[in-house]
Amino acid sequence: MRRIGELFAPHKAALIVTVVLVLIGAALSVVPPLLTQRAFDDGLFPVGADGEASPPNLPVLGWLVLAMIIVFVVSTLLGVWQTWLTATVGNRVMGALRVRLFTHLQRMELSFFTRTKTGVIQSRLQNDVGGVASVLTNTVSSVLGNTVTVISAFVAMLLLNWQLTIIALVLLPVMVFAQRRVGLVRAKVAAKTQESLSEMTAITQETLSVSGILLSKSFTRQQSEIDRYADENANQIRLQVKQQMTGQWFFAMVGIFMSSVPAIVYLVAGWLIAGGADVTAGTIVAFTTVQARLLFPLMGLMRVALDLQTSSALFARIFEYLDLRPAIVDAPDAREVPADAALGRVEFEHVSFAYPDAPAGARPTLDDVSFTIEPGEYAAFVGPSGAGKTTVSYLVPRLYEASGGSVRFAGVDVRELRQESLVSQIGIVSQETYLFHATIAENLRYAKPDASDAELEAAARAANIHETIASFPDGYDTVVGERGYRLSGGEKQRIAIARVLLKDPPVLVLDEATSALDTISERVVQEALDDAARGRTTIAIAHRLSTVVAADVIFVIVEGRVVERGTHAELIAAGGVYEALYRQQLAQAPASVPASVPGSVPEASAGVAEAASVAE
């Protein structure tokens, strides 16, 4: 509750005005019953000095009716103003909470997203925050208004007749106890409901994305995906019904009690009058009116308390994410990347690394790795799958934190540098290119929002993609589709290269950027990569050795350790792991050429043949 209250702190002025309006409105709500008593006793059925009934006193009745109308009008206007204030404050608080959660998630380390479903994260942002909207918008005014109304009505009832007040409130303790029990049950059901909703969102995100729908169609699994969604949907329906029905019997009993109280009051009033008590008709009418003004706000308070208990599960889920602490943060004295001659130098000193979710006792992904890449040098990392090559590319921009040893950039330990400053010096081209569902120009400007059209064209030309873009009917305004699916793999990759060139970083990381491409596309993209790497420190993670034969230095990684290093010619001459991998790929390359093309030169092996001539 304290943390929920802190969310309203920036809106103190609006809350103060709301409180004043609520207090005035609550106070005014008990005035009409008192005016009703006077209208009955002094206006409609006045009693003369001799104790005899007199004709209606129309002037007094007229003023009392006018006063009641004025109270109703003022109360309505104040209610409209109060509703606007509470809706504005509540929605702003909810919006700020959503942005705060989104901002916090942006700061989380990469490993958080690799172990958490995207749909679950989306559900926290949308469903959980949206689920507490009514609490945020209505709680303050409802609690204050109903509390003041209840107190005012209770005082008015005591002033009218204390015996009838006891009768009206006799079951209140039982109602409060029952409400708390119901709230606990609803909170548990609400938590399960949100978990089910998260799962549904995750299923939707996974199966209705372009990649997901392509996968399900490729394996004719549409029906199984439909069944999976339908099963979770049925579970969601069951939980929603259970949540709605929990407490309905309680409120039904409260409703019966509230409806029965006026009749009981009439009976008790009859006993009191028969016993000689001074209870007038106006008192009875006013009392039953005030009693309604007491019990309905009282029931409203119980519903608010119930909503708060129910929403506590949602707030717990939201605060659970807000309480997560990023594993990688800037040090208090973090500094900018130094702009000197060492800019572009990358050093690993006895670096070890194990992924956070790795089993205890498992072999580390990297084990005592040391190397130095000088500014402007082209360094390649090769080795079997799972050897730890890509992990190297993650540690340089500090997407993951080294478990041991030191990663240095421009001569400074990356833990001493501001992350934003570090990443601004590094451009990454990965195997899986990600493009937004936007135009080509918008995707390019993601690297440099203020880039001019001329800069876009220059970057595209450097990436060998300008002519292709120009051939599209809409040119740079062509919408690429979800994840760029309207483009070929080679086109997407070259746009990604152009985007990195627009950033113009001194260090370029290429993570198997051509391994998923066909031979022709690979050759075109490789030319673009070679042009992009010129004059920059380049770290290339390669599966196809033909793409890195011209590298200044090649590091061979096996089971997390650097076992060989040198140029292509030196490693071939050494006859070690690299030479075995190279010969294996050389032997496999011709097999990829279709037999139906007699006499053709194997395009797939062109790069390898080139490499062979270099080796010779």
UniProtKB/TrEMBL annotation:
PROSITE patterns: ABC_TM1F, ABC_TRANSPORTER_1, ABC_TRANSPORTER_2. It is a multi-pass membrane protein. GO terms for cellular component: plasma membrane. It comes from the Bacteria. Keywords: ATP-binding, Cell inner membrane, Cell membrane, Membrane, Nucleotide-binding, Transmembrane, Transmembrane helix, Transport. Its main location: membrane. CDD domains: ABC_6TM_exporter_like (cd18550). It is found in: Cell inner membrane. The chain crosses the membrane at residues 60-84, 132-154, 160-178, 249-273. InterPro entries: AAA+_ATPase (IPR003593), ABC1_TM_dom (IPR011527), ABC1_TM_sf (IPR036640), ABC_transporter-like_ATP-bd (IPR003439), ABC_transporter-like_CS (IPR017871), P-loop_NTPase (IPR027417), Type_1_exporter (IPR039421). One of its GO terms (biological process) is oligopeptide export from mitochondrion. Residues 16-310 form the ABC transmembrane type-1 domain. One of its GO terms (molecular function) is ATP binding. Residues 346-584 form the ABC transporter domain. Belongs to the ABC transporter superfamily. Siderophore-Fe(3+) uptake transporter (SIUT) (TC 3.A.1.21) family. This is ATP-binding cassette domain-containing protein. It comes from Agromyces agglutinans.
